[in-house]
Amino acid sequence: MRPINEPIPGDDPGPSGAKPVTPVFTTDILNQSTAVDLSSGEMQPHWDGLAKYLNSLGTEELSQRWKKARQIIQEHGSAYNVFNPKTATERPWALDPIPLPISSHTWQTLEHGIQQRTKLLALIFKDIYGRQDFIKKRLIPAELIFGNPGFLRQCRFGPDRVTPDHHLFSSDLIRLADGSWQVASHGTQVPAGTGYALENRVILTRILPRMFHSRKVQRLAPFFKYLNLSLMEISGQKQQEPRIVMLCEGPLGTHYFEQVFLARYLGYTLVETNDLTTRGDWVFLKTLGGLQRVDVILRRIPDYACDPLMGTSQAFPGIPGLIQAARAGNVAISNALGSGVLESPGLFALLPELCRDILGEPLMLENAGTFWLGKPETLLRVLEEIKSDVRPMTIYSAFSQAHTQVVHTRSLAGLEKQELIAAIQATPYAWAGRYSVAPSTVPVWSEQGVENRYAAVRMFSSSITENASTAPAKISDQVETAVMSGGLSRVADDPDALVLSGTRGKGQGAKDIWCLSELPTEFKSMLHRFTTPVEIHRGSDLPSRVADNMLWLGRYMERTEGMLRVIRSVLLRVHSETQLNKVSEMPFFLRAMANLKIISPDLGQPDASFSVRIIEKELYQSIYGVQIQRSILNCLNNAIQVADRVRDRLSDDSWQIFGRIEKGLGQINPKKQSAELLEMLSDILLNMSAFAGLALESMTRGMGWRFMDMGRRIERALHMTTIMTSLIQGHTVPDPNDLEAVLEVADSRITYHTRYRTTIYMEPLVDLLLLDEINPRSVGFQLAALHSHLENLPRSQPVPFRTKEEKIILDLTTRLRLADTQELMKLGKKHVLPNLDTLLEKLNNDLQSLADSITQHYLSRIETEKQLNGQFEGKGFPVAGTVDGAVNNEI
Q: Where do the record's region annotations for Disordered lie (predicted)?
């Protein structure tokens, strides 16, 4: 064996006399893994270069690069919901920095074997939902199909079908100790992992760039280009670009990050079921400007969640009428509805025979010891083996790909074994199983160094099946296939966690797969040209759900920023050298925080007593309080959750800022000292300002930006009216210290003192913070911006009159522009400044009405002016103002 610490050509071993590096790999670790050829004892060539390179880096350097990779993972928000989507438990993506190389010879063998299986599965699907010749000839047992809940009779098409089927498959493979490869299972419904494979490659490219320069690692882009072109092909659009959407479960879905990442990479619109609707056997996307026809749906949700008219036992909203639209050929769906039947473990066990019968050739890649108990000879053999405990095996449902009812025979007692045998004998066709297999191990990086763990490989393939109504001369020529030259490797301490889907094991993680080539790899672009020139247009439209989330993203961010500024100002005074009872502006701050619902209302009363201890306790609760709706923690969490729902609309830079905010939230500790707490709040404010700056300078002025900015403007105007109301709620005219405090929380001190030097008066302050339309912190500025946004929002049809929200904003803008500061400063008897108080109350109430009207008109698709005035109230009809009839404003 050649020395494994020799640098690869082109690598920089470091300056002369540098400290020797500690090798990453040791001979013992490599000898126990797939890196060494068992027959010769020599390191396999495709591992040799990787081992040399990583050893030239050393453990310290690789550890530093891996820290950088984890930072990238956090900034990208790479995560998945672990095993139970209902709990929404996110776990960071556990990527291993050591890739899994596959030699060019092995890759060619795997590619041909996966292509064969892809072609076979595509033909089986076409027959099951078409002529069913394979069932009539008993090549496929009828009970294995018609008894399978995954077989959807509503999706069967007739002989006149003209739309081709497109499938995206996954194949889980394991490598045995002798070097042979076997296939453990297939994913045919919504195979997951393509986005994670792409993310893995992006991260490893950044931390191990020289390996891609010196090694001939095949790229992943050609597969995605083929996938993109395939979806365009099945759309039926030949001259212009079709509308392709990716249908996902939403942020609570297990693989939401992957779906967002993939949708952005492919350039597809990410939608949920409530974003789509059907009209006359056509599928449409609901947008602010109206309904837009959808040509192709790349679905990432299971069959049963697609259409509630399917009649399945599970209750999901879905898209009513989707099956009918697909049967009519008006929308192409990938993967085709009903493809979950192909995930049947019983059908998987029959693939070797089906390959010989259908394709006329043996299966290139063997199955991993699977069997179906519907065959009498197999049933007798397996029952005898269960009784005698000769061979450990796993028994599970022949219909469910998730392998429910998993039973490990090695753990059965006498009575349990008899019950299992009785259940199998009652319905043998409903059971399948697998003999225990031990995958080979691969080197995995850990904090303690390199370890060996079991590994499985998931590879992806795509196929297009031609028109089912034609009968080609050679059946195998009907399917065109492509295989991703890479994939996703999963590693775990428990081999069953790799072989059985849904089985949780220890030490789970993922690796990038490097399929090596004998020739240099070529760059492939994702760009595609159509015969018809693209029509130039500006502006954009977006789904109503996205607009709603963008609106609330702006509101939550601005609401949090306003509260942070007030809390920071109060903390500075609580921990200053001046005693709290000597701070004359403290009553104003208490009133403001009470009105903003930061502290309890009692502390905002004129006769309220307070102390440092009481205020500190209230402030800490306002920051960390989980039970307090408007705490900083809850508001930021709400902002992050809303941002997660529009993740595909936010830039990488924007998401990195949210990653930093989320990291700051993780460092929140109620035991922090005041200096640390102030520093933390300042950091969060800076990150929020950075996000606002990105939105101002980088986001195109489309509908997404408009709704997010409207949310910011509404919330900032409400915040400023609350601050000004708190200022004049005292029994006397505010003193200069109160006015200075208002300028501080409004971030307008420099502007005021630049204009008026050192003298602080109430009248110019009111002008600056209420009426001045060139001050970005004033209410007038917010109203002018809202007026501009409302004039540019889309309308489904032209109307001769202004909408309700336009009337509200026009009335408010006019009132402010006609306001006279001298009239506002007139003193009263009951109130200190009654005219100003009346104006502020009007602004606050109408701004709330404006927010509700925008939501009802543009986001809930409810025209509130046409409600039937409650005449159906109490008769089962939704009434305006209720959750069903209007809108739920809080996320």
A: 1-22
**Three-class SS state of 649:** helix
Q: Is the dihedral of CA 245, 246, 247, 250 positive or negative?
A: negative
13: in domain: no
| Residue 272 exposure: Cα atoms within 13 Å on the Cβ side | 15
Measured CA to CA, the distance from residue 496 to residue 472 in angstroms comes to: 42
Q: Measured on CA atoms in the order 156, 159, 165, 167, is the torsion positive or negative?
A: positive
Q: Which of 212, 246, 213, 208 is nearest to 227 (CA)?
A: 246
| Same domain assignment for residues 113 and 253 | yes
Are residues 579 and 690 located together in one domain of the fold? Answer: yes
Q: If residue 470 lies in a helix (H) or strand (E), which one and from where to where?
A: none
Q: Are 409 and 389 in contact (CB under 8 A)?
A: yes
Q: What distance in Å separates the CA atoms of residue 181 and residue 603, rounded to the nearest whole number?
A: 71
Q: What is the CATH number of the domain that holds 381?
A: 3.30.1490
β-strand pairing of 509-515 with 100-102: parallel
In angstroms, rounded to a whole number, what is the distance separating the alpha carbons of residues 714 and 474? 66
Alpha carbon distances (Å) from 840 to 338, 556, 625, 846, 847? 59, 22, 30, 10, 10
Asked if residue 713 and residue 612 are part of one domain, the reply reads: no
Residue 850 CA to residue 129 CA, distance in Å, equals 52
Residue with tokens 């509101």: 555
d(CA 760, CA 743): 10
CA gap 540, 702 in Å, rounded: 5
Dihedral angle at the C-alpha atoms of 735, 738, 744, 749, nearest 10 degrees? -10
* 864 in Cβ contact with 878 (< 8 Å): no
Q: 718 with 802, same domain? A: yes
Domain-embedded: residue 33: no
Low pLDDT (below 50) residues in the chain: 1-17, 80-89, 403, 468-474, 476, 502-506, 523, 525-531, 861-891
| Cα distances (angstroms) measured from residue 117 to each of 112, 172, 365, 368, 692 | 9, 12, 9, 14, 51
pTM (2 d.p.)? 0.81
- Same domain for 169 and 196, yes or no, is yes
The full DSSP string for 743-812 is HHHTT-HHHHHHHHTT---HHHHHIIIII-TTSTTSHHHHHHHHHHHHHTS--SS--SS--HHHHHHHHH
For residue 335, say if its preceding peptide bond is cis, omega within 30 degrees of 0. yes
- CA–CA dist 847, 785 (Å, integer): 13
Residues 258 and 212 in one domain: yes
**And the tokens for 824?**
């506002």
Query: Is there a single domain that holds both residue 327 and residue 399?
Result: no
CA dist 810 → 289, 463, 522, 846 (Å) = 23, 57, 59, 11
Would you tell me how many other CB atoms lie within 10 Å of the CB of residue 667?
Answer: 10
Residues 391, 310 within the same domain: no
* 132 domain-assigned: yes
* Residue pLDDT, tens place only, 513-538: 999 887 765 545 444 444 455 555 55
Which residues contact residue 122 at a Cβ distance below 8 angstroms, ignoring those fewer than 6 apart? 165, 167, 463, 465, 479, 481
Q: With respect to residue 14, please indicate whether it lies within any of the assigned structural domains.
A: no
Q: 428 lies in which domain range?
A: 370-435
**Residue 369 contacts residue 361 (beta carbons within 8 Å):** no
Q: Which residues pair with 172 in a beta bridge?
A: 185, 458
Total domains in the fold of the chain: 4
Indicate the residue among 404, 420, 435 that finishes a domain: 435
Integer Cα distance of 617 and 623 in angstroms: 10
Backbone φ, ψ for residue 23 (5° rounding): -60, 145
> Running DSSP on this structure, what letter comes out for residue 535?
P
- Report the alpha-carbon distance of residue 236 to residue 172 in Å, rounded: 32
Q: Which of 698, 716, 745 corresponds to the end of one domain? A: 698
Angle at 253 between CA 74 and CA 207, to 5 degrees: 25
Q: Say what the pLDDT of residue 172 is.
A: 93
